[in-house]
Amino acid sequence: MLILLAAIFLLHLACIAVLLAATIHNAWWMTNAISTDIWDRWLWMDGKWNNSEIPAHYPQAYLQAVQATSVLACIFCILGLFVFVAQLYTLPKGKRFLFTGAFQLLAWLCIMIAASIYTDIFHRDEKDGWYGASFILAWISVCLTFISCVTYFVLRKKTA
Fold this sequence. Notes:
The protein has 160 residues and is of the alpha+beta class. The chain is 62% helix and 11% strand. The chain has helices spanning 2-24, 60-90, 98-121, 133-154, and strands at residues 29-30, 34-36, 41-45, 48-52, 130-131.
């Protein structure tokens, strides 16, 4: 049981790391001279990256929704880790980790909303670019948080 709990704890840490990387890193949309994330745009000029604002033609309401749900996913996932540790010591034997699973479910829902909105709204008609590493990490974190959520709902403290 101890090995199982350690593996679940490491999965949760991986979820947090991937969510934070997807939210913070500046590679949601890339071209040869532009790197865009949900916060800024970076332009390659004169041999260095220069920070600039997100273009005004981006739908600001959708962009703010992506930003908010990405940050909320990180917060819920981190809170879920604290709740998991607390429940590990306070739950009686035979109980399930429902509160931790609920936080992971909220994190999964938030990052899925963020990645889905970004996929549907932004860069639909742009042909000369590609989705970057942060965008891919966001979708990987959707899978990881869902697996973690299901694991917590199924996991039960057993008597060794």
